[in-house]
Design goal:
Strand content: 15-25%
Helix content: 25-40%
Bound molecules: NADP nicotinamide-adenine-dinucleotide phosphate
CATH architecture of the largest domain: 2-Layer Sandwich
CATH class of the largest domain: Alpha Beta
Largest sheet: 6 strands, parallel
Shape: globular
CATH topology of the largest domain: Dihydrodipicolinate Reductase, domain 2
Length: 329
């Protein structure tokens, strides 16, 4: 007998997550204690890469978050609603929650974490920033002894891919964006990526962990890459810089006191800086802390397998936190 998961969403990340959970051989031993109980989707008739028993599938997502047999609700729907309400309902019912939804966490993190705290359940979200790169848990735990000075990095693979291609081929933004869309690296509506909104959601989440307290998402300065031209990139290169869309959270001195600056914008990065060589869809996050100095987290920032790796690590953490098999008959 193990832990029952209710999966909300069987799209890119949901499918990757289900594939890992259904194939535990050679992975962490606790995975064999985890079982997918129900899966919620929008359309039952949609052709899917992964066929699950029809009895497992439903379009009634509320029936999953209220199912007394389910221990862990994994929200992989995306968007604000119904994701927010379903997470809150799951918490109210005493479920542990895993989500990769940066948009919901950046806007409703306070509400969600207060509700979870009130009931005594966990909400884990390693997949929400940096895809498969372990950065949330390290920031919360392994770097906990440090006074964090800054967290900054490349947290959006689509824009980094576009800037990399513009730099390598000297092509303009519109042309590269169209190629990225054809290759599936950019959404049909690329606004959230190219205007820096996705990066702002992610730095809001990282800053809240690194510096504590509430980050007001709407107050984050945010400029995307639409106005970066091939000529800008070319001039920057001649001066010894790469142009990168950076998400930045750092302490700064102001009027004798300290303030936290959180912002997203194209940045001139010296070509010998570690972030200058992060190319394509990869992400990298540089954390500076006292006394540690700098550490960089680098890897695949999106994709089914990479993000599912982070989601399943949260499920495993919950299973161990809950006492795993020892606590359950
Ligand atoms: N894709 C990535 O590489 C990546 C990386 C990091 C984080 N994330 C985050 O992971 C989450 C999931 O992303 P994704 O790329 O897997 O999304 P996706 O491919 O669009 O899949 C979304 C899934 O949720 C279901 N769904 C959406 N709205 C629904 C509703 N109102 N009612 C019922 N079902 C609904 C869809 O059902 P149908 O299948 O029936 O349409 C689909 O199965 C998002 O929060 C995203 O930001 C994604």
């Amino acid at each position: 007998m193990g832990f029952k998961v209710g999966l909300l969403g069987l799209g890119t990340v949901g499918t990757g997550t289900a594939q890992i959970l259904l194939n535990p051989a050679g992975r962490h031993p606790l995975l064999s204690a985890v079982e997918i109980h129900r899966v919620g989707v929008r359309s039952l008739g949609k052709p899917r890469q992964l066929q699950l028993p029809a009895s497992m599938m439903t379009t009634n997502l509320e029936s999953i978050v209220t199912d007394p047999d389910i221990d862990i609700v994994v929200e992989l729907l995306g968007g604000l609603e119904p994701a927010r309400s379903l997470i809150l309902q799951a918490i109210k019912r005493g479920k542990q929650v895993v989500t990769a939804n940066k948009a919901v966490l950046a806007r409703y993190g306070d509400e969600i974490f207060s509700a979870a705290h009130g009931v005594g359940v966990y909400v884990l979200f390693e997949g929400a920033v940096g895809g498969g790169i372990p950065v949330i848990q390290p920031l919360k735990q392994s770097l906990g002894a440090n006074r964090i000075i800054s967290v900054l990095g490349i947290v959006n693979g689509t824009t980094n891919y576009i800037l990399t291609e513009m730099s390598a081929k000297g092509t303009g933004f519109d042309e590269v964006l169209a190629q990225a869309q054809a290759l599936g690296y950019a959404e049909a509506d690329p606004t959230a990526d190219v205007d820096g909104l996705d990066a702002a959601d992610k730095i809001a989440i990282l800053a809240a962990i690194a510096f504590g307290g509430r980050i007001k998402r709407e107050e984050i300065f945010c400029e995307g890459i639409r106005r970066v031209s091939a000529a800008d990139i070319n001039y920057a290169a001649k001066l010894g810089f790469a142009i990168k869309l950076l998400a930045i959270a750092q302490r700064s001195s102001r009027n004798g006191g300290e303030a936290l600056q959180v912002r997203v914008h194209p940045t001139l990065v010296p070509s010998n800086h570690p972030l200058a060589s992060i190319n394509g869809v990869c992400n990298a996050i540089l954390v500076a802390g006292d006394p540690l100095g700098q550490v960089m987290f680098f890897g695949p920032g999106a994709g089914a397998g990479a993000t599912a790796s982070a989601v399943v690590s949260d499920i495993l953490n919950l299973v161990s936190l809950l006492g795993a098999i020892a606590l359950k008959p």
